[in-house]
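Field log, afternoon session.

UNIT: design team B
ACTIVITY: writing a sequence onto a fixed backbone
BACKBONE:
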């Protein structure tokens, strides 16, 4: 089983090799796949805004789906001094600013507590068939997901297939699903629909 740092390097390299066009095309496919998830009866959806320099999944397409379904969309602002994130309702007048870390973030707004969130779209570098993910290593999302309701649904988004297994610690929060351009992996029901 590869260690987390080896996997981080592997997937950063894989992403670096993706063209802008293929990122857009696969991001659109991921959004279309996500429509098959059993999550669309909820109200509060947390979505990450992609760091384009890191070639993350472009969540604009998912955002359009959420807006079209008139859902409440929540985005975060990271505080690197505390390792915590604050969450704000995304509204028409929300001002987004690129942080020093390249992350698009809301400047201010109506704060939403993690307990209110029903679906969280989770960024990741790699993930395993056991539903565990590897992020950038700062732990922001693990701390955040722990504060969410026990009924919240965690959905990873990835351009790539899962690793056979990923080492995880007791503090790591597993995903319910991961959406790729070609399929949805369901980690709670242990089946992999096409």
């Amino acid at each position: 089983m590869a260690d987390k740092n080896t996997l981080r390097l592997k997937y950063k390299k894989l992403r670096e090799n993706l063209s802008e066009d293929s990122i857009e095309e696969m991001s659109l496919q991921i959004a279309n796949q996500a429509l098959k998830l059993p999550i669309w009866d909820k109200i509060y959806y947390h979505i990450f805004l992609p760091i384009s320099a890191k070639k993350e999944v472009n969540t604009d397409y998912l955002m359009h789906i959420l807006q079209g379904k008139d859902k409440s969309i929540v985005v975060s602002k990271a505080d690197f001094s505390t390792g915590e994130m604050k969450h704000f309702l995304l509204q028409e007048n929300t001002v987004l600013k690129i942080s020093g870390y390249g992350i698009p973030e809301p400047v201010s707004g109506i704060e939403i507590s993690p307990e209110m969130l029903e679906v969280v779209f989770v960024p990741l570098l790699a993930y395993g068939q056991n539903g565990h993910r590897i992020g950038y290593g700062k732990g922001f999302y693990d701390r955040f997901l722990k504060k969410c309701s026990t009924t919240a649904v965690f959905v990873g988004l990835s351009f790539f297939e899962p690793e056979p297994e990923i080492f995880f610690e007791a503090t790591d929060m597993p995903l319910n699903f991961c959406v790729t351009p070609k399929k949805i992996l369901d980690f709670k029901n242990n089946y992999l629909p096409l």
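LOG NOTE: The CA atoms of residues 88 and 111 lie 4 Å apart.
NEXT ACTIVITY: expression trials, pending approval
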